[in-house]
Sequence to fold (157 residues):
Amino acid sequence: MSRKKNNTWHPASGQYGWLGSTKGYKQSERAKTEIDRLIKTIESRRPQIQQYYNEIGSMTESQNELKNLTELDRFLDTSYNLERESEKKIAKTNLATITDVDGERKKESFQDQRKRDVELANITQDMQRINLGQKEKTDLYQLDNLINQLNVERSRY
Fold:
C-alpha cells in the first residue's frame, strides 16, 4: 500500500498528514527550491567562464605572435643594414679579401641579443599562460565553493 508523501504524519518535519503542512514547512520547501534553482544557474556559468578564459588565451597568443613578428622584422632590418654597412666599407678599400671585423662583431652581438630576446619572450609567454590558467582555476574554485555553500545551506532546511 503506497501513500503519498503529503498524507504521512511527520510532525517534526511540519507535515501533519491529511491536516496539511505548517507555514514553516512550506517556507523551507520554497527555500530549498530557490537554492536548487540558484545552484543550477551557477553551474551553468562554468562553460561561460571557461569560454572567457579560452578567448583571453587566444587573444594573448595572437598578441604575442604579432610581437614576435615585429621583433623579427626589426632584427632582419638591422641585420640587413649591418650587412650593407660592411659591404660599403669593403667596397671603399677595393680589396676582395678584406672583411669588416667591426661589422662582424656587431652582427654576432646583435644575433646573440636576438636569441636572448626570443628566450625572454618565450618565458614571458609561458608566465602569461600560467597566470591565466591560475586565474581560471581560482574563478572555477570560487564557483565550486559557492555551490558547496548553497548545498550546506540547503541541508539546513
